[in-house]
Amino acid sequence: MATRKRTPATKRATKKRASPRPPARTSAAKKTRAQRAAPGAGAKAAQKKHVARKGATTRVPSKTAAGRTKVAKAPRGAIAAPRVETARRLAEPPAADASLFPCGDEALRAATGKDWSEWFAMLDAAGAAARRLDHQRVWDLAMQSLPETAGWWGQMVSVGYERARGLREKHEGCSGEFQATSSKTFAVPLFAAFAAWADASLRGAWLDAPGLAFTKLNAGRNIRARWPNGALLDIRFNATGPDKCQIVVDTMKLDDGEAVQQAKAFWQAQFERLQQYFNA
Predict the structure, then answer these.
(1) pLDDT, position 50
(2) Which end of the chain is more exposed for a tag (fewer CB within 10 A), N or C?
(3) How many domains does the chain contain in total?
């Protein structure tokens, strides 16, 4: 059998078939010289591309008449749900009723250096209302901003705050009992006003209070009395001039606000009877 002689052209073709094909260049390998010179160029370009696409369009699926699903481009704002505010906010404290305050803003600022709104802000920040502190603890908080000699004003601040924040009702004492206060000024000397209450014969000429028992008399100062239902009276006499006297009646140990209003109405009526007695 004759041997076929390999020519140079045959050798080149065989070598070409035998040599493996070089791997395809990847996208990473196709970087330009400028990209290779600047390592961060690719990342910056990708970031710009992401920013450019963000919010541009959004694909919205829909169906054609033939029932096929197609994707149309629509602005992102057309399908984006409205943003809902989910931040938790602290409940605003209720507006204070000025009629609940034992004194006005001017008097309180002159005595304590703060008005009611400033005291409320300080006690709210300390959590007095949120933790429903009792009267003693509210008073202690108020006294931290007052001198030791201002205990009476600490009482005024704590009572006004507790009323405004619903920690106690108006006319409610620290123990949960209610108290009614009624007063009237008469154009008579103090001794005459005191005698009209202390002398049983004089008292019977104007006072319409069956069952009221007088238990203690401090001449020219006050009288203590008791109702059959257990309510207590403290009747005080204050001279406001040579021929003027103020009479204050405190009714204590009442059950609720309704009893307070009844006591106030009763003593206003009795004061009118006493005025008629003095005028006679």
Answers:
(1) 47
(2) N
(3) 2
pLDDT per position as a tens digit, 224-248: 999 998 899 999 999 998 899 999 9
Task: Answer yes or no: is 271 within a domain.
Answer: yes
Amino acid identity of residue 55, one-letter, is: G
59 — pLDDT class (breaks 50, 70, 90): low
Same domain? For 149 and 223 the reply is: no
Same domain, 187 and 249: yes
What pLDDT is stored for residue 7 in this prediction?
Answer: 55
Q: Which two tokens stand for residue 113?
A: 């250096």
CATH no. for residue 182? Answer: 3.30.530.20
| Same domain flag for 270 and 195 | yes
Give the largest Cα separation in the chain, rounded: 167
Please write the tens of the pLDDT for every residue from 95-142.
Answer: 666 666 778 888 899 999 999 889 999 999 999 888 888 888 888 999
pTM of the model: 0.47
Distance CA 67, CA 222 (A): 98
Task: Report phi then psi at 248, rounded to 5.
Answer: -120, 125
Strand order across the beta sheet in which 178-186 lies? 178-186, 244-254, 232-241, 222-226, 213-218
Do residues 230 and 151 both lie within one domain? Answer: no
**Helix (H/G/I), strand (E/B), else coil: 45:** helix
The domain of 157 spans: 99-164
CA-to-CA distance for 195 and 187, rounded, in angstroms? 14
Q: Tell me the C-alpha distance between 163 and 172, whole Å.
A: 9
Q: Which of 116, 133, 164 is the C-terminal boundary of a domain? A: 164
Q: Which residue has the tokens 């399908």?
A: 79
Looking at residue 257, what is its pLDDT?
Answer: 77
Among 164, 195, 214, give the residue marking a domain's end: 164
